[in-house]
Write a structure and sequence with these properties.
By secondary structure, the protein is an alpha/beta fold. The protein is built from seven helices and 27 strands. Strands 1, 2, 5, 6, 7, 8 and 19 form a seven-stranded mixed beta sheet that branches.
């Protein structure tokens, strides 16, 4: 089967990208989703707070997803659910399978990767102790409680302070559980400030920073966990152990972009974001293959996922229909001092409009700093920030007239 644009994933990124591609002239568009319904992670995010930037109103996760599902259903975009993509190559050939069609071979003019990300499991952490029941990733717990109607525990300890963990702290209290504490390895929270206030402070849930679980106790079910303070090298400090009684541990310790298909297609990955390296239009190192949403960088707001995916959808439609040249002088974008990453990592002068938008995260909590943008000739722009934290993605817009086509670097420095 041949399509102009094929989208892998029907979460918020894939839905927005497919709709935007259709709006911008793509003829035949197909969306492939391995789950039994579209919407992705939003289906289990029944709390509100979505849509404030994009729709200018407050929605729950399912309501936000429904807006795009309804729009998709008004088009002739083909949506295949229960469909697992098995392979993708650099020539944009897709092999998938589902119960109805069996094996499916797709040739696409452009492909959009929107597979999202997965949670880091316990096995990646190496927590000492026994292996009892009662240990879940925060996202798995969220699905059990919000979608399956299963109560997972009564005394809950949360490791990590990512947004899903914070939100589940509140959710478990509302369901009648006692949340003993939220334990964070770093000296700052990894979640949004509003979630710290609304999910921990408003429910008197303690947050232990610079701390971690050093032992899990229990035979068949978690009975307790030992937490310890850590030093500047993130090593447990002897003598600071504290045992906390609990029957459930939730892990909110980071998200990893789904990279299997990207690797198979030979797409170049960024060691910092762990996702594909992309250009200003979200195109990867393989021409005609684009990436957006959490597969490219982990977002804290779904509104920004939608905006980024709209860009990928427009670019994919242009590529598939031959309406846009992708040549021009190419330059790299680097993350310097104080930044963990910057995206896009590359840009082409011909593809930049009036501004080049760059997204980044900082590596610590900073006050009264400025984001300095430099080329080989020196500083070309500075953007002041009164307060930045790792849990919140930042953005700067650099006027194209300031760019000379050479590499640029972003870094933090003290505000002048």
């Amino acid at each position: 089967m041949k399509y102009d644009v094929a989208v892998i994933g029907a979460g918020p990124a894939g839905l927005a990208a497919a709709i935007e591609a259709k709006k911008n002239g793509a003829g035949k568009v197909i969306v492939l989703e391995r789950d039994f319904e579209a919407g992705g992670i939003l289906n289990q995010c029944i709390h509100n707070g979505f849509g404030l930037h994009y729709f200018k109103e407050e929605l729950t996760g399912p309501e936000y997803a429904e807006r795009f599902i309804d729009t998709l259903n008004e088009t002739d975009i083909e949506l295949k659910l229960n469909t697992m993509v098995l392979s993708l190559d650099k020539d944009k050939r897709i092999r998938a399978v589902n119960p109805c069609d069996g094996g499916i071979d797709i040739e696409a003019g452009a492909v959009i990767l929107a597979m999202g990300c997965r949670e880091r499991p316990r096995g990646a952490l190496g927590i000492p102790g026994t292996r009892p029941a009662g240990i879940f990733t925060a996202g798995t717990a969220q699905r059990y409680v919000n979608m399956e109607g299963c109560m997972i525990g009564r005394k809950v300890l949360i490791l990590g302070s990512g947004d899903i963990g914070l939100i589940m702290a509140r959710r478990m209290v509302l369901e009648g559980a006692e949340v003993m504490a939220c334990v964070e390895l770093m000296p700052y929270s990894a979640g949004l400030k509003r979630n710290i206030v609304q999910c921990l402070d408003d429910f008197d849930i303690p947050l232990y920073l610079s701390s971690t679980i050093t032992e899990v106790r229990g035979k068949r079910r978690v009975r307790s966990a030992v937490i310890s303070r850590v030093d500047k090298d993130r090593k447990p400090i002897a003598g600071t152990e504290k045992e906390i009684e609990c029957d459930t541990i939730l892990l909110s310790v980071g998200l990893i972009p789904e990279n299997e298909l990207s690797k198979e297609a030979g797409i170049e990955l960024d060691g910092r974001t762990k996702g594909p390296i992309v250009y200003e239009n979200m195109e990867t190192s393989c021409p005609g293959i684009f990436a957006c949403g959490n597969v490219a960088q982990v977002h804290d707001l779904v509104d920004f996922v939608t905006m980024e995916s709209n860009q990928a959808g427009r670019a994919a439609a242009a590529y598939a229909t031959g309406k846009k040249e992708t040549g021009g002088k190419t330059f790299d974008v680097y993350a310097g001092k104080g930044l963990t990453y910057v995206l896009p990592q590359r840009a082409r002068m011909d593809g930049i409009g009036s501004f080049l938008e760059l997204f980044f995260r900082v590596d610590d909590v900073y006050q009264n700093v400025q984001v300095a943008v430099s080329t080989a000739q020196g500083r070309i722009a500075r953007f002041k920030r009164e307060y930045v934290v790792p849990g919140e993605m930042e953005k700067v817009r650099i006027p194209k007239k300031l760019l000379d086509g050479g590499e640029i670097r972003l870094e933090l420095e003290a505000a002048q």
